[in-house]
Amino acid sequence: MDIGGGPKLEGMDNAMVALTAETRSIRLEIAGFQSQISGLDQRVTTVEAQAASWTNRDQELLHLCSRLTDVEDRSRRNNIRLLRIPEGTEGAEIPSYLRDMLPKLTDTTFDPPLEFQRAHRLGPKRQDGKGRPRPIIACMLRHGQARQVLQTARTQGPLWLGTLEIWLSADFSRETVERRRDFLSLRPRLRHLNVKFGLFEPARMWITKNRESRTFYDPEDLRMFLEGLHETSQTMETTAQPSPPPRTHRAKP
């Protein structure tokens, strides 16, 4: 009598050995996966730290760019820009020309007389002499006189040199000019919403609505604010629409 099980027991032993080997292989694979996952976790942590560092650097860069723009605008505070003055009208000495021309252009007597550190045309001279006249940029000796000239020009309205209208403006950095242009592009929407507004130097928009005043330094913030006002006004108009009068039924004769 065979009590050892014979071939059946031997087959079970072989199956157990194979199962043990397969289990060991699976454990090794799991260990490898765990190692890979651990490595991925470390890489993700590193990437997140780098992303946070980049975000901080972006904010620092934006802050530095803002400060640089402010410094550039401050360095131009004594400058005035004149547009549409025909080429060659100024002669050889632009400061002397402006000293005599600006009082006549603005119909104002400046006391003391205007003084300039330097003045010149912007850009290379056109060889053919055609096209728009190059702008003149003039740096005045005193900041107060630069403000006085600009204020006088705004008060006088259109400035005429003979039959030619001359444009006179302050001098700003490119970033500030673009921001002012974005603010001014919102004027139609401001008027449509009955919002009082004003653009102040260098580039900030002041508005008043329902006796509440706010100042915006970013055109995008003002655009989002106006969108909210538009939605609110539409809601109020819809709510305020009168309901149709009830129908009355006439009695039959």
Characteristics:
single chain, 253 residues, alpha+beta, five-stranded antiparallel sheet, three-stranded antiparallel sheet, 8 strands, elongated, L1 transposable element RRM domain-containing protein, Transposase_22, L1_C
Helix fraction bin: 40-55%
Question: What's the assembly state of these chains?
Answer: single chain
Beta fraction: 15-25%
- Order of helices and strands, N to C? HEHEEHEEHHEEEH
Number of helices: 6
Q: Can you give the mean pLDDT?
A: 85
Low-confidence stretches: none
Number of strands: 8
Measure the end-to-end span. Answer: 120 Å
Structural class: alpha+beta
Approximate shape: elongated
Radius of gyration over all CA atoms, rounded: 38 Å
Strand order of the largest sheet: 2-3-1-5-4
Largest sheet: 5 strands, antiparallel
Describe this structure in words.
The protein is an alpha+beta fold. 53% of the residues lie in helices and 17% in strands. It contains six helices and eight strands. The protein has helices at 7-75, 94-106, 143-156, 174-184, 187-192, 219-240; strands spanning 79-83, 116-121, 136-140, 159-161, 164-170, 196-200, 204-209, 212-216. The strands form two sheets. It has a five-stranded antiparallel sheet, with helices on one face. Strands 6-7-8 form a three-stranded antiparallel sheet. Strand 6 (196-200) and strand 7 (204-209) form a beta hairpin. The longest helix is centred in the first third of the chain and has 69 residues, at 7-75. The model has no long low-confidence stretch (mean pLDDT 85).
